[in-house]
Structures are given as C-alpha cells and as structure tokens.
Specification:
Blueprint: H1 3-13, H2 17-28, H3 31-48, H4 52-64, H5 67-77, H6 82-95, H7 104-118, H8 122-133, H9 137-158
Helix pairs in contact: 1-2, 1-3, 2-3, 4-5, 5-6, 5-9, 7-8, 7-9, 8-9
Length: 160
C-alpha cells in the first residue's frame, strides 16, 4: 500500500474526508482525480471491512501495542472467540501491510500465560494479563478462560 493511500485511510477512519481529499489533491494535482481516489478508497474500505470502528481500533492497537495485545483487545471487546479475533487482526495487518515483528513481548506474555495455566495457576495468569494489558478483572478472566479452553481442547485432541 502506498503511503498516500495509507494517509487517506487514516483521515477517512477519523471522519476527516476533507483532509483526505486535500492529501490526495496534493499528490495528484487535480481535484476530480483526488475526489475519485478518495471515493474509491472509501468504497474499498466499506466493502472489505463492515465494522469501521473496529477496523480503526485494530489499526491503532497494531501500531501502538503490537499484534498480541491487538488480538487480546479485539477478543475482549468485539469477538466471542480468540481464533476469530486473531484472524481479523492478522487480516488487517496484511491488508495494510503493517509489520508484525514488534510482538516479542506479546509472545512472551502468551507463553507465560500458557505456562501458568498448565501449572494450574489461573489466578496468577489473570493477574499477569491485567498487569500487562491494563484490563479489568472481567476481561482478564475472560481471556484466561478462553486460553484455558483452547489449551484443554488442544491437549484432548493430541491425546486421543
């Protein structure tokens, strides 16, 4: 994705269509072409992403928190399933060509959470998630319960 397109998208997600057209105009030099580009990008966004507020939040989370926390946040606030949240976040990152290499801390958190759960230390896992993410008890517990269910399902599948 070109930098200009990304800037236009950022303005559109912030409901600043006038600024989006201005950026396009500066790049293209013709107002009709600028408006056409902004309209095209708007149509692509609405066709691909049916929930624009969610898209905006996931993009912000990916840029500021990294992949792992973006997934956790999406799961806690928008999705009932961790796997679906992960697929959505990864699709956003791929579509906008965002690097996902800044996720070392998130991977570490995931590993620590899985270890604590496998040791039967769910309370410590909840505390760790609360501390790392800034979430409340309810969101942290919901996340731990989801991870626990995934681990249990994985274990049962492997040992059948």
């Amino acid at each position: 994705m070109k930098e200009i397109e990304y800037q236009i998208i950022q303005y559109l997600l912030d409901n600043k269509s006038t600024e989006a057209v201005s950026v396009a105009f500066e790049s293209l030099g013709a107002m009709s072409e600028a408006k056409a580009l902004v309209t095209q990008i708007t149509n692509q966004l609405t066709a691909r992403w049916d929930n624009i507020p969610l898209l905006k939040q996931v993009l912000q989370d990916l840029q500021t928190l990294g992949k792992g926390k973006a997934i956790i946040h999406a799961r806690a606030h928008y999705f009932d399933n961790l796997g679906i949240a992960k697929k959505y976040v990864e699709a956003v990152a791929e579509y906008f060509q965002l690097p996902l290499s800044n996720c070392i801390d998130d991977d570490c958190l995931s590993t620590q959470v899985q270890e604590l759960i496998s040791q039967g230390k769910k309370i410590q896992a909840i505390k760790l998630v609360k501390e790392h993410t800034g979430w409340g008890l309810k969101e942290s517990k919901a996340y731990i319960d989801q991870v626990n269910a995934l681990l249990t399902t994985s274990y049962l599948t492997q040992n059948q």
